[in-house]
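TA notes. Do not distribute before section.
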Amino acid sequence: MSKIITIAREYGSGGRLIAQKVAEKLGLVYYDNQIIDLAAKELGFDIDTIRKASEERSSGFLYSMAGGSFQMPLNDQVFATQSKVIRHIANQESCIIVNGCADYILEDYDQVLKVFIHAPFDSRCKRVEEMYKEDEGDVRKKVKTMDKKRANYYNYYTTNKWGNLKNFDLTINSDFGLDETADIIVEMYNRL
């Protein structure tokens, strides 16, 4: 049976880098944007359109009429397709999935370690500033905006609340160090 790690994270916490380190240490396949790419392929849309839709919750309009039939908004189609892709991957192989809603999508799976990575706001801003070479004022705004987008998306598509500790098996402050955080996740995974 597959053993899965899902990683949700605050923007700038280093969650993606930590996930890559964990994948390398455990020899697991790492999925992040590949899930969006697979959803785009299945829906028949270009990747940029699907990536944008995958970051935003649906508009207030539930369904639209297209060609005489009801059609879900693109954002909802993307979420449904990503959910299908994530479940398919989880049934096929042990892996790491970096996706804000993967913990919810796989909540009925037994062998899943659900991780939430966070860090103090100033640490996250510093990491984003160093990685993307942006102005400090812009960075602070971007970190707040991205966290808000992630929370809105998660809260809209799940019955859980984004960042709630009870949704996860492990929540960890990445200020302990990226390698150290990865080591803790590896140890927890080995106990599944």
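Switch to the second chain here.
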Amino acid sequence: MRGTLLATDVAQMTTQTEVHLKKTLGLPSIVLFGLAYMGPLIMIGMFGVIAAASDGAAAGAMFLATVAVLFTALSYARMARHFPASGSGYTYVRKTVGPRSGFMTGWVLLLDYVFIPLVIWLVGAEYLYAQFPDIPRAVWLIIFIAATTAINIIGIKVADRANMVVISFQVVILALYFILSINHIVQEGGAGAFLTMEPFIGVHQEIGPIASGAAIAAYVFLGYDAVTTLAEETKNAQRTIPLGLVLVALFGGVIFVITAFLMGIILPAGSEYAEAAGSEVALTIGGHVFAAFFLTALVAQQFNAGIAAQASSARLLYAMGRDGVFPKSFFGRLSPRFLTPVNNILFCGGIGLIAIFLSLSTSTSFINFGAFVGFTMVNVAVIAYFIRNRSQERLNPAVYVVLPAIGAVIDIYLLLNLDGLAKLVGGSWMVLGFIYLIVLTRGFTRPTPELSANALEAADPDAVKSAKIDMRAGDANA
């Protein structure tokens, strides 16, 4: 789901917490968990935005994004072998490149923590507005934010069984979407309709629009690294987790590319792509009944993901407030009544209201700025590990230098293809973070603060354990 990146880093930044869980999970369970956690319908939900940005080359954009993520997944897997108790890009950079680089990586990823709930709510609002245009999009957005904020303040945890039902429903809808899409294409154009390359090359047949689409398409992968949170429950975790990371990225990419290809045939290049194009295709291939089921599944996915993302964001901000990275008087307080970080939950909800003035593509770009910086730095961390340890360990330069270097170059290329506003906001945030680091370290005369979540355990000893256990059922609202 869309809150996965948040939940992953919250759990993995708590590196000193010892939670002993039974090792029962094998590779198939790890891969299925990762695929489910990314959100089975997210590619369909984002198709209109990706297709518009790529000038009809949604499948090509998705393929390029998959390549970028696969190179980074290989680097994540390499780091997971050396630091099996960790799973966050922030931690890898801190341990290999240095604490200052780690701090800046974590700081940039805060853009994700702030904007992921916003994008989740905006996707759900866009689809509901497309179905019920008489109700303004802003109203649907406020309903999403108000409902998830109330649930997170009170501290209600979505039941594991309910989550599994929602995920299973999404998988069924995705399978039907595939079947109905193929049937529709065969009926309209015959088997030869599948031979087209248009969904890969688009209208202009140029790399520029495809790269712009890929810069947005990477959003659908956020959370693929969530499998690292299951290391304590996985048999032979040092081998299974790294392999699972790569397979989740690979299989997820294949599913996303096929989905984009089928939808690109149904809505060919040159079409007018609405942000809620997924519902338009659902109506075309399955009629009103299937379109209603699809909308229900997508909204349920976004609602669950919104709860998880907002809860994770608020708890990370709380932990950073407790650690003194942020002002403790606001961010480091728990509600005496609900024992939840109410200030931070309301803060995240307030940020979400900015979506009233943003398009889905722009808000997604904000998140991908942080994601591409994080991806780049994970690749750099592998190279740094090679430089530091090549004299003590037998390390293959092709694996530890060439592959991560290629991954870093691709990530930077896609980063540069984000829209101008995203680069302006992201770049400004980086400058602000560097200035803040200078202030925190008194001009680098004091140690760089660690963006840890240890204070979370002190306030709620069961929080981290609950987060890790509940992730198996797709619920990060610990």
